Amino acid sequence: MEASYVQAKNQRTVRTFAWILIAISVLLLLRSIFTLQSISAIIMMKDLTRKFNPPVDINYTPYFIEHAIELLLCIVVFVASTFVLKFENLWRNVLVFGLTVSIIFLLISPLVDYYNLAPWDMELMTSIDKKIMNVTKTSMLIWSYTWSMIFSAFFVVVIVKLTKKEVKTLFA
User: Fold this and answer.
1) What pTM value is reported for the model?
2) From the CB of residue 9, how many other CB atoms can be counted at a distance below 10 Å?
3) How far apart are CA 43 and CA 58, in angstroms?
């Protein structure tokens, strides 16, 4: 009696985590698609305005690569979470791997944004502008890491839950 109760509780927990991961991945997938479209539109506009020699020259390649990786991770987590709802062991392993890679990505991504944020020529800036830029970059880094830690903590909880012995028996 108690074993079936624990098994039903574990099934509900796995389903709940899977639905939460599906919702998160869909939202991030939409954001990533819109961001990639925006970056590609900006690159196209940059080519169109090249003869006007704009004062800001931004290298969008790190942002494009970062959001392309984010898009791929969202797709992996979405598909794996969908099949985890059917309790397929292969997809449980894929989901654990995808969440582990996502944690690594969440730890690296804010640093990429931090070091690629200032495309402007720092020599032309006044000292006040430089201070404002440094405060803005630091604030963005703190907020990025805060959100990264929140998502990473949730992903760690899901990974721990999916790798428990009694949960693995659900996927046999």
Assistant:
1) 0.80
2) 11
3) 9
Q: Are 152 and 106 in contact (CB under 8 A)?
A: yes
For residues 20 and 161, the answer to whether their CB atoms sit within 8 Å is no
Q: Which residues contact 137 (CB under 8 A, 6 or more apart)?
A: 114, 117, 118
pLDDT in tens, 132-167: 777 877 888 888 899 999 999 999 999 999 998 888
Cα(7)–Cα(134) distance, rounded to whole angstroms?
52
CB 77 within 8 A of CB 102: yes
Q: How far from 74 is each of 68, 160, 171, CA to CA, in Å? A: 10, 20, 23
Burial (CB count <10 Å: 0-12, 13-18, 19+), residue 102: buried
Distance of alpha carbon 143 from alpha carbon 151, whole angstroms? 12
Cα(88)–Cα(32) distance, integer angstroms: 28
